[in-house]
Specification:
This protein is an alpha+beta fold. 20% of the residues lie in helices and 8% in strands. The protein has one domain. It has a two-stranded antiparallel ribbon with strand order 1-2. The protein starts with 8 loop residues before the first strand and ends in a 25-residue tail after the last helix. The structure holds iron/sulfur cluster (SF4). The site of iron/sulfur cluster has 13 residues, from strand 1 and helix 1.
Length: 80
C-alpha cells in the first residue's frame, strides 16, 4: 500500500510491502508532522523521508484506495 489516487499516503506503508493490521490515509503535511514527532510507525515505513531519499516513493497498488479516509480535523473553536 502506498500513495492513493487522491495524493494521500497509506499510513503506514511497510518497506517490505507486507500488510498492516490498521492503516489509514494521511496527507503530506500530516505525514511530515508525524515524522517530526517520531511517530512509532515511521521508522519502518516506505514514506519515511530517509527511505524515500534512497529508494524513491513507493508504488501505487490497487489496495491503496481501500484504506480508510483521513479523519476530519475539527476547524471550529469551541466557545465557552
Ligand atoms: S512516514 Fe510515518 S506518518 Fe508518514 S505514512 Fe509512514 S508511518 Fe505514516
Amino acid at each position: 500500500m502506498s500513495n492513493t489516487a487522491q495524493g494521500l499516503r497509506v499510513c503506514p506503508t511497510r518497506v517490505d510491502g507486507s500488510p498492516v493490521l490498521f492503516a489509514h490515509k494521511v496527507d503530506l503535511s500530516r505525514c511530515q508532522e508525524r515524522q517530526r514527532q517520531r511517530y512509532h510507525k515511521c521508522f519502518a515505513c516506505a514514506w519515511n523521508n530517509s527511505y524515500v531519499s534512497q529508494h524513491g516513493e513507493p508504488a501505487l497498488t490497487a489496495a491503496d484506495d481501500a484504506a480508510p479516509a483521513p479523519e476530519k480535523e475539527e476547524t471550529t473553536a469551541k466557545v465557552g
